[in-house]
Structure formats: structure tokens, C-alpha cells
Amino acid sequence: MSCDSQGGTCDRAKRKSLLTKTPLHNESGGHGDARVRNLSAKGLGGVTDISVKRGQHLVIILNGIGPVRGRVAWVKGKNFGMEFDETIDLDRLEMSNAPIMQAPERFSVASRYQPMTDYKRPGFNHRR
Question: Which of 6, 20, 76, 84 has a CA between 20 and 30 Å from the CA of residue 68?
Fold first, then answer.
């Protein structure tokens, strides 16, 4: 059911589904990692192992964008939502700093995984 079908208007920004790990720092000096599950220009949803509370200020570091400040909008177990202080440009987001690896053009399969030429079961006589 959409917001428009209920007679209201939606103020939620369009979300981008992804799964990436990023550093997270809270206002009390705690730091850890967060797994970002969805991201928009105004906020994100993710999972973290450090303790966060609703209303707490956080800094999260996104590749290509840098440090982003915001506050915790909601918490449910280890899941949390963060609302950014300023909107971000999602086009600047980079998924990884690692170079893209190319698959080798030729590869070989180990001999133990090659198809057998003699497929006869031992102990059975085959009639001709």
C-alpha cells in the first residue's frame, strides 16, 4: 500500500538496496562496523554490533562520499535507521576500493574432477 493510496503524500526518499560494510563512530567514542542494507540521500538502514540509541549522533564513512553525520532515527535489536544531517549525492557512492579482478581467460580443472573414461562399476560383469 502506498502513501498516495491512503490520501497522503510520501516524504521518504527513494531507497537503494545494497549490502556493504563500513566504519561507524558514535558520540560517546565507541566505534565499530555497520552493514548498510539500504541507502537514500536522506538516511540509511543497517545492522551494527555496537550499542546505539534513538536520537544518538553517529558518523558513518561511505566510500566516495566520506564521513556522513546523522542521528539514529530508530533501533530494533541490532538493526537501526540513521537520518543524515545533510543530504548526500548517491552518484558519488563507490562500492569498493579494491580493484576489479578479471577472470582468467583459460583455466584447467584438476584431474580428480575430470570425467572418468571407465565408468564401469567394479565387481560387475558386463555382457556383450
Answer: 76
Which ranges of the chain have pLDDT less than 70?
1-13, 95-105, 107, 116-122, 124-128
Q: Vertex 88, ends 85 and 89: CA angle to 5°?
A: 170
3-class DSSP state for residue 122?
Answer: coil
Within a domain: 68? yes
Closest CA to 20 of 3, 38, 5, 8: 38
Collapsed DSSP state (helix, strand, coil) of residue 51: coil
Instruction: Give the chain's length.
Output: 128
The parent domain of residue 41 ranges over 30-88
- CA torsion angle 4 9 13 14 (round to 10): 20
d(CA 113, CA 84): 52
Domain-embedded: residue 79: yes
pLDDT at 17: 76
How distant, in Å, are the alpha carbons of 110, 113, 121 from that of 116?
A: 12, 9, 12
